[in-house]
Fold this sequence. Notes:
2 domains, zinc, disordered C terminus, disordered N terminus, two-stranded antiparallel sheet, Erythroid Transcription Factor GATA-1, Chain A, zinc-finger, Nuclear_hormone_rcpt_NR3, two-stranded antiparallel ribbon, Znf_hrmn_rcpt, DNA-binding
Amino acid sequence: DPLSILLEARFEPCQVCGEQSSGLHCGAITCEACKKFFLRSINGEDQKYKCVRNKDCIITRNTRTQCQYCRFQKCKIIGMTVKEGAEIQQTPRVADIFAQISCYVCQAPSSGIHFGAITCEGCKGFFRRSIKERAPSRYKCMDNGTCEINVATRNACRYCRFQRCIKVGMSVEGSRIGRQSNLFKHHMRMMLQRNGQIPNATMLHQMVHSTSSSSRNKTSSRKRTISESSSSESESQPRWG
């Protein structure tokens, strides 16, 4: 399921040592430590690497610093390379993929997921300015809030444009949803290669809101845990008087 691929992408382990990955680095999904190790190694450091065993050391988070030789070999086996750019150009850039999906607000070509919804740069900027300047309370509509918002009319009525932003799911809380990390971009390209088609707006919309719900649930869970912990500590304190 392509949607599942996108939703679970950020939870993939480092392909070198198994630690939680931080993104797509040098052509492979790795953690920060293995990325930096590989970059140091390709500058000539690898010439000093020796394996005192049989060149078959198991590389994990706990053992990765014990044998530089086998760790570097693992990096090469999974495909890490400094020539990543040549491979990436074979498939469309993420910006090009989004450009083929219409902005949820005005129907112009979108540029990404902004404030929790798929929008163009114009509507992203409009929403950001509106919130920053606390302007929505001053917006008025001369046509009872029924204006049609499209590329040609979006600047005619700020009230209806802002209402449209809210309706499609834009919010301050959603500002961190959908930021396109290297890993996110990698999986969008993988989806394109596997399915031969560009992920559509419905799929990306589901991804955005599933991620949003997951994030809210995790936050609520953390708050409950902290609250319960504080309550437990309070009850365990000796009472005086």
